[in-house]
Amino acid sequence: MLSTNQAAPSLFLTELDVVRLERLASRAGAPHMAEMLDHVLARATIVPPQDIPHDIVTMNSRVTCMLAGEATPREWTLVYPDSADYDAGRISVLSPVGGALLGVHAGQTVGFQLPDGRAQQLVVTAIGYQPEAHGEYTI
């Protein structure tokens, strides 16, 4: 389940991302996605893609993050499950870290639970690429 170091801050999502995530959640065998999406939507401000602030992690954004306890930053692209490849730096939105990244601001610290149950925190230090900032609304 996602969590943050602050009490349920609002996050931003684009209308297109919400529609695509709802499609994923409606797939058979994805009950955890529906639960995650409900949790995210309860805290989300949903905006047209052209109105999303450029410092927000959206789908297909490339981000630089610092994981707590690590000295080397990680570069990841937030993708849909079919495009995920951890070794190539493409993180699924359905993964614990992917779900935690979606909709947060550059500079924000977020927490998430690792598959083994341990808590982990990371800071989004930069957004190197956000599709909406480049006028790309249909990726």
User: Averaging pLDDT over every residue, what do you get?
Assistant: 85
CATH topology: Chitinase A, domain 3
What class do helices, strands and sheet pairing give? alpha/beta
| Total domain count | 1
Radius of gyration: 14 Å
Shape: globular
> Strand sequence of the main sheet, in spatial order?
1-7-8-4-5-6
Main sheet record: 6 strands, mixed
Order of helices and strands: EEHHEEEEHEE
Q: Percent range for helical residues?
A: 10-25%
| Terminal Cα span | 26 Å
Q: Low-confidence segments, ≥5 residues, pLDDT <50?
A: 1-9
CATH architecture: Roll
Percent in strands: 25-35%
Name the CATH class: Alpha Beta
Number of strands: 8
So how many helices? Answer: 3
CATH superfamily, by name, is Transcription elongation factor, GreA/GreB, C-terminal domain
Domain Transcription elongation factor GreA/GreB C-terminal: 53-128
GO molecular function, one term: kinase activity
Keywords: Kinase, Transferase
InterPro entries: GreA/GreB_C_sf, Tscrpt_elong_fac_GreA/B_C, Tscrpt_elong_fac_GreA/B_fam
Briefly summarize what is shown.
This protein has helices at residues 15-26, 31-43, 96-101; strands at residues 3-4, 11-14, 44-47, 62-67, 74-79, 90-92, 109-113, 119-129. With 139 residues, it is of the alpha/beta class.
Spell out the blueprint of helices and strands.
Blueprint: E1 3-4, E2 11-14, H1 15-26, H2 31-43, E3 44-47, E4 62-67, E5 74-79, E6 90-92, H3 96-101, E7 109-113, E8 119-129
Parallel strand pairs: 2-3, 5-6
Antiparallel strand pairs: 1-7, 4-5, 4-8, 7-8
Helix pairs in contact: 1-2
